[in-house]
Design brief:
Blueprint (H helix, E strand, L loop, with lengths): L10 H6 L6 H6 L35 H8 L5 H20 L2
Length: about 100
């Protein structure tokens, strides 16, 4: 992103824009159906605080197509890989605790 694309706004200017979202433009861009509460449903009861400071740096060898799949999702691919591994661990804990 170049400096010419960076804009500064005061808090008052930001507050003045509340309610001015162009929902039709967002729909035209795809992957958006409308400003409904169901679009952003979150089960906060199962939310878990993750402390990134406890993570251990490792070297991990994965197949090139697997790595490419996660990288195609953009930045944060390592976090997504960790989330998949965590889901596997949690599923295995449930299986072994039966």
């Amino acid at each position: 992103m170049s400096a010419k694309n960076i804009k500064s706004y005061t808090l008052e200017q930001i507050r003045a824009t509340k309610g001015q979202t162009d929902w039709d433009r967002l729909k035209d861009q795809g992957d958006f159906e409308g400003p409904e509460e169901d679009d952003f449903e979150v089960d906060w009861a199962s939310a878990v605080m993750v402390d990134g400071l406890n993570k251990k740096p490792i070297s991990l060898r994965v197949d090139p197509d697997v790595l490419e799949f996660f990288k195609e999702g953009g930045s944060g691919y390592q976090t997504r890989i960790n989330a998949v591994l965590r889901a596997y661990v949690e599923a295995q804990k449930k299986v072994t605790s039966r």
